Amino acid sequence: MSSASVREHETLEATLLRLKEERDAADRRYNEALTALDRALVRATDFPHPPPGYDEHQITPLNQAWDTGVTPPAMGGLKGKLAAFIWRIVGPPLQQQQTFNSLLVDHLNRNVASHRESQRAIASIVAVLQEQHADLLSFNSRLLTFLQQITLYVDTTGRRSEGQALIVNGALNGLAGDLAKRWESLIAREQRFEARVAQIGGAQEELRSLVSLSQQVALATKRELERLAAGSGSTSNAQLPTPNSQLTPNLQPPTSSTGAFTSSLDSYKYVGFENEFRGSQEAISARLESYLPIFVGASDVLDVGCGRGEFLDLLKARGVSGRGLDLNHEMVEVCRARGLDVAETDVVSYLEGAPDGSLGGLFAAQVVEHLEPAYLLRFLDLAFHKLRPGAPVVLETLNPACWTAFFDSFIRDITHVWPLHPETLRYLVLASGFSSARIEFRSPVATEDKLQRVAHDPAAGTADLAETFNANVEKLNARMFTFLDYAIVGAR
Predict the structure, then answer these.
(1) Looking at residue 53, what DSSP letter applies?
(2) Residues 6 or more apart from 403 whose CB is under 8 A from it?
(3) Could you tell me the pLDDT band of residue 392, with boundaries at 50, 70 and 90?
């Protein structure tokens, strides 16, 4: 039972005893804090004396004695010549000494005023610090006195209110009990209401899915009836391969999805599956838009497994010519209804009939995982020969190296045949002759869906345990919660 539930049913005496214990604990904490504050008071400090004044005793004698009076001799005759000879020997050092004396005296004269001001400034700063330190000591002392006095004031005020508190507590306990009962009743009603709302929401989702599926059934039935009326074919196409499985007569068909959605009348089910689990056309268009810079300036781009035609719409809006391929009859009809150039055939058959170098780009989103290995290798070989030199190729697929993508997305689609590790698909593309192929990881798992690290309290002594746990969390996140998709982006 929670502490809140215990408090709801305790007696008045128990409530008063609990409140007294809580007050005593608060008093102890307050006294401990007050003692710590007293010990932390700032103590008086001896400040250093201002520095002595600048020594100017020798300034005046230096100004008087710097000039040595050395001048070149001006006498003529033999004595003049002798004096001139001696001057040439001793004159330069004497003149250099006089120049030095002049510079030194000038420097000292210039710094006299600066030294005087520095000494006065230091003396002023020391005086201000002493004054502020005294004010701080006075404030700390008065603060401690105030905190000591307020304890007595609060204690006397509390004693006056104890009698009134007993009466009020009794009334409040009765009122609280009544409110608790009413609150429990409201919570129960709210829980029943939320459960009913959740049931209605689930029913609405199911109804929405059924309505969407019914619309797809109606469209597919209408098309087949129109085809029958026009005598253009039968309502069954048992020889068509699985949607997105890309079969060809001369290769071994994939065994994992053969028979799924093989009929034209059943093809609407895969359209409904895409709408339900992959996302709306708007959401997929937003995801695929980031691939457009790769195909800037391209032409004759082939969209393999074009589905509902989201990427073809993006290419068309930017003036890039493109054509789509898909085996799902209903998806082909959806694309053609929007004026897109889409053929209902498999990619190997289409490429075998196309001239070499006829394609300016190739795009396949969420397609290669539907292909058997032998068929995939044939597809890559043909793509290399049919693309022009330098033409881009993009192969997007689910990332089976991410466990979330594999268990939540890959195995959900019954038409998926073979999971392809990113390094495996990159190797196959390069082995087929393409000059470059890089891995671009896409659709990162949301942070809130990953395993979370734990914080640790150093005082609890669990730092090693928390560090080991967090390291394991990182390892699991690196396996289970990385990127849901990846793309191989290469060039012919």
Answers:
(1) P
(2) 479, 480, 481
(3) very high
pLDDT, position 258: 39
By the 10 Å C-beta count (0-12 exposed, 13-18 middle, 19+ buried), 218 is classed as: exposed
Tell me the three state secondary structure of residue 261: coil
DSSP 358: -
Amino acid at 430: L
Of the candidates 344, 188, 199, 328, the one whose C-alpha atom is nearest the C-alpha of residue 271 is 328
Among residues 443, 446, 438, 469, the alpha carbon closest in space to that of 456 is found at 469
Structure tokens at 445: 């798992």
Q: What angle do CA 235, 240, 246 make, to 5 degrees?
A: 150
Q: Helix, strand or coil for residue 40?
A: coil
**How would you list the strands of the sheet with 392-398, edge to edge?**
342-343, 322-325, 301-304, 361-365, 392-398, 483-491, 436-444
- The SS3 of residue 181 is helix
Lowest mean pLDDT among 148-152, 343-347, 437-441, 448-452: 148-152
117 CB neighbour count, 10 Å cutoff: 10
Three-state SS letters, 76-94: CHHHHHHHHHHHHHHHHHH
- The number of residues in the chain equals 492
Q: Which long-range contacts (CB under 8 A, 24 or more apart) does 166-173 make?
A: 166/12, 166/16, 169/12, 169/15, 169/16, 170/12, 173/12, 173/15
What are φ and ψ of residue 361, in 5° steps?
175, 155
pLDDT digit string (tens) for 51-63?
787 777 788 888 8
The domain limits of the chain are 3-50+58-178, 267-491
Average pLDDT, the chain: 79
Spell out the residues 6+ positions from residue 338 whose beta carbon is closer than 8 angstroms to its own. 309, 313
- What mean pLDDT comes out for the span 387-407? 88
The whole-number average pLDDT for the span 464-486 is 82
Kindly give, in sequence order, each residue whose CB lies less than 8 Å from that of residue 105, ignoring residues fewer than 6 positions away: 62, 63, 66
3-state DSSP call for residue 299? coil
Query: φ and ψ at 442, to 5 degrees?
Result: -140, 165
CA distance linking residue 87 with residue 94, whole number of Å: 9
pLDDT per residue as tens digits for the range 114-149? 888 887 888 888 888 888 878 887 887 778 777 777
Supply the pTM of this predicted model.
0.47
d(CA 187, CA 182): 9
Q: Which position has the token pair 């969407």?
A: 212
Using an 8 Å Cβ cutoff, are 314 and 285 in contact?
Answer: yes
Classified by CATH at the fold level, domain 267-491 comes out as Rossmann fold (3.40.50)
φ, ψ (nearest 5 deg) of residue 23? -70, -40
Backbone angles phi, psi at 65, to 5 degrees: -105, 0
